[in-house]
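User: Can you model how guanosine-5'-triphosphate sits in this protein?
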Amino acid sequence: MRIKTSELAAVAVKSSQYPPEDMAEIAFAGRSNVGKSSLLNLLTGRKSLARVSGNPGKTRTINFYLINGEFRIVDLPGYGYAKAAKYVTENWGEMIEGYLKNRSRLKRVALLVDIRHKPSDQDVQMYEWLRYYGLNGLIVATKADKISRGEMGKNLNIIRGALKLEAGEKIIPVSVLKKTGVDELLNELTILLEGE
Ligand SMILES: Nc1nc2c(ncn2[C@@H]2O[C@H](COP(=O)(O)OP(=O)(O)OP(=O)(O)O)[C@@H](O)[C@H]2O)c(=O)[nH]1
Ligand SMILES: [Mg+2]
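Assistant: Here's the modeled complex, given as structure tokens:
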């Protein structure tokens, strides 16, 4: 697949603000600052489609992006943002669960983890939750430019072990800086969307 067009279709904090369930969706989840919004910009080839920041907690709403007029990529707010005010953290759970649980055309949730680190307890929890709802199976290891080629295999194995991945569950390393991993991820999305 090639992404030819992309646009922000809706910004939501509650279900009444979601777009209609008239096409497939793929969501990006993961810790704050892991690179969800940056990855969306890389995939679409648009540097400032989604707002990116060095400070965690940038995306605080559920943002729906229409891709090629055919499906949506949904950029979720990150978790594990220690400095977030309490009401933000409490709201987060409700907001994310409300979306993930009840979205009939949601095909899969790509869980983004930082390739440098062992997944956090929250990552593990999130992935178990995705597994429970049948939304698991696609992991993206971000910031691949931050480690050496030699470290790659070892780090991917650590991630694989922590998330208890099975053979068919993929980890795709990506780097926004080096623009790597895009074709692999787009291929994966194509397969998922063809299985509609
Ligand atoms: N070196 C490097 N930096 C990256 C990469 N991807 C993202 N970043 C940086 O990581 C920081 C966070 O990126 P965001 O895309 O805003 O992260 P996010 O997951 O959307 O964060 P929230 O919106 O807070 O949930 C920014 O400073 C990005 O420039 C990457 O592949 N390599
Ligand atoms: Mg973001």
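A couple of observations from the model: The CA atoms of residues 48 and 155 lie 30 Å apart. Strands lie at 6-12, 25-30, 62-67, 71-75, 106-114, 138-142, 170-173.
User: Helpful, thanks.
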